[in-house]
Amino acid sequence: MPYDPEWAARFEEEAALLRVTLAPWLAQDVHHVGSTSIPGMWAKPVIDMIAGVQDLEESRAAFEPLSDLGYQYKEHRRDAHAFAKPPNRPTQWDETHHLHLTVPGSELWRERLAFRDALRADPALRAEYSDWKIQHYGRMSASPASPKRPFVERVLASQGITLKPDDQRLTDAAVNARRASRPRIPALSDQL
Asked: Does some domain include residue 70?
């Protein structure tokens, strides 16, 4: 959907709750990342956030307080804890908020902030990504017809960051879930 200025207000409202809830573990602030954080960007209406924690393992103690706020833990990255709100939704399209807890300076931290900042700073890049999303996501009802990874890799490379392969970044469960969600293209041998 087209950019909605209310997304910034929704982030601020949620970040205020998270700052209080996560205070014992925070090393840095809660940041708005993802497409809803980029003025003018076409996006699915999910507020993506990243919070810098002092210690990833110690931040596991935040799982219960986050659950009390309606967040559900999801396997995702090796260098972060991922959550979605509200819990138990069939797809990410039905969620309203995504949150990652990670140590400032982690790969995820650098990737998300660099990608956001690059698109905020470059109207042509922002337009290119919006156009790609409109072309591949249509009315937000289907999976993309083509992966966005080449675009993300190019943007991050321009910021001096190399995006590692999924099997080096994601947990095994997240890699398997990603593979299962992609449309299967039959092999030639399947057609013989």
From this structure: yes
In a domain, 138, yes or no: yes
What is residue 141's predicted lDDT score, i.e. its pLDDT? 43
Residue-range definition of the domain harbouring residue 145: 6-181
Express each pLDDT in 88-113 by its tens digit. 776 666 789 999 999 999 999 999 99
Residue 30's Cβ-side half-sphere holds a number of Cα atoms within 13 Å equal to 22
pLDDT digits (tens, 9 = 90+) for 144-157: 445 788 999 999 99
Q: How many domains does the chain have?
A: 1
Rounded Cα distance, 162 and 23, in Å: 31
Which token pair is 70?
Answer: 């309606």
Neighbour-count burial of 60, counting CB atoms closer than 10 A to its CB (0-12 exposed, 13-18 middle, 19+ buried): middle
Read off the tokens for 82. 């991922």
Is residue 191 domain-resident?
Answer: no
Looking at the domain assignment, is residue 186 inside a domain?
Answer: no
CB atoms within 10 A of CB 125: 18
Provide the 10 A C-beta neighbour count for residue 164: 11
Q: Does the N-terminal peptide bond of residue 86 adopt cis geometry, omega within 30 degrees of 0?
A: yes
What CATH number is attached to the domain comprising 93?
3.30.460.10
Amino acid at 82: A
Whole-number Å distance between alpha carbons of 120 and 110: 15
